[in-house]
Structure to design on (722 residues):
């Protein structure tokens, strides 16, 4: 409701004009967009102690999100509910300095709740029962206590932020809930009050260990290329059997208890036909071990196969089974044949068990996630929200395109978060194995999302309050680690050497993929991903699509890895020069100048963000690129090769694989010369071969003479400098 005018005596509790004030039955998400299909009768009300925020969160992978007000001090609980309700529902509750938009995102409200609770605990201990009792002196005391508290600086910042956020909404609250009129602590910034946070990029998510990622990707691709057809077929058979099960149909009402009687002789006919099938195919009866470890028929599964009640084990038809002479298997295997191989042998030594089919389907889905998320450069949340039909193939360009929603940085004209997300204007350009992974997922299950929480269409967890249907990040992490456990057990059983080593930085998580990909692209550009695909190829594809735009965030991830690599190499170059390394070539002087200058300017330099690393890479002192037997001291206007990247982008690099001998940017260190000398020695042997074809002989002789000239020039200039 909107308050009427009040007298000064009543102003302490009066709601300002234009502010809507909730009653006990007012919806918590009254003025928020809700997920399609939301049951409004189940929405949280203001008087509830726990507020469910899930209906306003559209990301399919988001965890269950709620606010538990019982955690807050009793004396301040009601005021806190009024305040949080305004953050959720007021069009313009108040804006923090440098904040985007007028409204706080729903997930941000959840995130700030913990730190706001810490503030309320402190206020409660100091006898505060209403926000209007807070004075500037009390805020100074709060700051002094915060400074003295043993707490990470980042968390101290967040508590100050929640005080400021409460102050920004004072104009829409009654006087009893308003902080003092002047901005807290005279408007001074947090870094002026507490000291500057030293935000080092190294403290962020660690990349995955090189061997761990290499073998994780290898096995993921192996699942897609060699095991997928078997697993998809077996899981389809599993799904059909599950749906066929008598008790399943009875429970779901597809048959009624009184209508299950079969025609006379039908059970015996089905049993007889099935036994004939087993004899012809060499298969065995489904089996299991009883409590005494005896191998017995799995009557429940046999009933599932035949579509009859498993109570038939007490009939004469069961006696036909036990006296048939057909052997009993150790498990309840599916009929699906195993066609996939590894090292020339079947990838699994027996048929897939009915009970193992969901596990293999989940592992296949996990393998597909690894390939899609890692090789696309997309954020994990973006991948988890992908839907069927997200892949297109441009026949004209030959490119594979992946379209989907994005949520981070999806804002409206006022800068407010668009909760539904937005469709990418530019799709990701991906390599073919990503498209194949998506195709496998589309064959594996019928769900509209590629990565649903539950693959089987007939399963649903009880009491699951979460409304999103995609797997959340924590389940992805669990799936990745279960995948590793299976692979390593299989490697031990087979005596293989390509087990996935444990990562020293902890459990695998999807959030670590992007930085790891950036590291591989920068450090191992020629490393094989699959078949003929190299990381350089993956990088080229990323640059052609959305992942190559700065909105995606991936170029900044790459910039940070590039920064670390260049600083490492510059330190090595500086040490070599100090130890007397000689440099020749047209850019030798520029090389020495840049190495010495960069070492003075950047040694020990700490970057606080990916974007800062990106900006620093444009510094001319850092434009040194080591190639194979040469070093490029890049001056763009003099470059003879085709530069990689766009004009004006600090990430532009020379194509050192296409270095032109006459380029003025070339310098050659003693380390480069060692490479050229080894190549020279190899060519001497080839040129001396009298049986070499004439054309080859002339080509190699020309290259030998060119290398000899480089070696001579290097030694000559060494003498000139001494």
């Amino acid at each position: 409701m909107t308050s009427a005018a009040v007298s000064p005596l009543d102003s302490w509790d009066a709601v300002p004009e234009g502010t809507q004030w909730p009653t006990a039955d007012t919806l918590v998400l009254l003025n928020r967009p809700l997920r399609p299909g939301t049951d409004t009768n189940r929405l949280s009300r203001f008087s509830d102690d726990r507020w469910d925020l899930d209906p306003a969160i559209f990301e399919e992978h988001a965890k269950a999100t709620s606010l538990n007000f019982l955690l807050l001090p009793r004396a301040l609980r009601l005021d806190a509910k009024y305040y949080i309700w305004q953050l959720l529902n007021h069009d313009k509750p108040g804006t923090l300095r440098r904040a985007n938009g007028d409204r706080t995102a729903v997930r941000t409200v959840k995130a700030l709740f913990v730190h706001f609770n810490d503030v309320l605990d402190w206020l409660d201990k100091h006898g505060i029962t209403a926000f209007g009792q807070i004075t500037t002196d009390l805020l100074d005391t709060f700051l002094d206590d915060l400074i003295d508290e043993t707490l990470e600086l980042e968390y101290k910042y967040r508590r100050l932020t929640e005080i400021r956020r409460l102050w920004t909404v004072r104009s829409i609250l009654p006087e009893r809930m308003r902080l003092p009129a002047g901005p807290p602590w005279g408007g001074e910034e947090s870094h002026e009050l507490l000291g500057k946070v030293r935000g080092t990029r190294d403290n962020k998510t660690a990349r995955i260990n090189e061997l761990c990622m290499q073998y994780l990707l290898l096995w993921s691709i192996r699942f897609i290329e060699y095991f997928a057809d078997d697993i998809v077929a077996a899981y389809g058979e599993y799904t059909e059997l599950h749906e066929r099960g008598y008790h399943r149909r009875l429970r779901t009402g597809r048959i009624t208890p009184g209508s299950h009687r079969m025609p006379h002789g039908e059970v015996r006919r089905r049993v007889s036909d099935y036994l004939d099938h087993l004899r012809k195919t060499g298969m065995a009866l489904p089996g299991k071990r009883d409590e005494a470890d005896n191998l017995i028929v799995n009557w429940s599964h046999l009933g599932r196969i035949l579509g009859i009640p498993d109570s038939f084990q007490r009939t004469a038809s069961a006696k036909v089974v036990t006296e048939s002479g057909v052997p009993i298997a150790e498990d309840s295997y599916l009929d699906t044949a195993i066609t996939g191989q590894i090292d020339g042998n079947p990838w699994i030594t027996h048929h897939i068990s009915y009970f193992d089919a969901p596990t293999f389907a989940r592992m296949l889905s996990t393998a597909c996630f690894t390939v899609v998320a890692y090789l696309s450069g997309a954020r994990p949340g973006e991948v988890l929200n992908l839907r069927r039909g997200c892949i297109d193939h441009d026949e004209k360009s030959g490119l594979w395109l992946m379209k989907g929603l994005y949520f981070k940085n999806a804002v409206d004209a006022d800068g407010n978060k668009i909760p539904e997300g937005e469709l990418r204007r530019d799709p990701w350009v991906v390599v073919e194995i990503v498209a194949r992974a998506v195709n496998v997922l589309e064959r594996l299950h019928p769900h509209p999302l590629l990565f649903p929480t539950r693959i089987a269409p007939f399963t649903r967890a009880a009491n699951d309050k979460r409304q999103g249907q995609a797997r959340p990040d924590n389940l992805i992490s669990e799936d990745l680690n279960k995948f590793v456990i299976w692979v390593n057990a299989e490697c031990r059983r087979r005596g293989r050497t390509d087990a996935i080593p444990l990562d020293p930085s902890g459990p695998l998580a999807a959030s670590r993929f992007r930085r790891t990909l950036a590291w591989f692209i920068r450090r191992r550009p020629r490393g094989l991903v699959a078949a003929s695909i190299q990381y350089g190829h993956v990088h080229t594809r990323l640059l052609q699509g959305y992942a190559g735009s700065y909105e995606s965030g991936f170029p900044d991830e790459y910039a940070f890895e590039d920064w670390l690599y260049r600083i490492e190499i510059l330190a090595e170059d500086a040490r070599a020069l100090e130890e007397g390394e000689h440099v020749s070539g047209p850019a030798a002087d520029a090389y020495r100048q840049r190495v010495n200058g960069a070492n003075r300017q950047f040694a020990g330099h700490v970057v606080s963000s990916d974007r800062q690393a990106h900006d620093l890479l444009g510094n001319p002192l850092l434009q040194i690129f080591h190639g194979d037997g040469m070093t490029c001291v890049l001056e763009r206007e003099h470059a003879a090769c085709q530069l990689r990247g766009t004009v004006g982008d600090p990430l532009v690099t020379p194509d050192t694989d296409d270095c032109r001998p006459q380029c003025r940017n070339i310098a050659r260190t003693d380390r480069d010369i060692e490479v050229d000398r080894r190549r020279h020695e190899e060519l001497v042997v080839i040129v001396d071969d009298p049986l070499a074809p004439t054309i080859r002989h002339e080509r190699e002789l020309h290259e030998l003479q060119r290398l000899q000239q480089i070696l001579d020039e290097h030694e000559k200039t060494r003498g000139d400098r001494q």
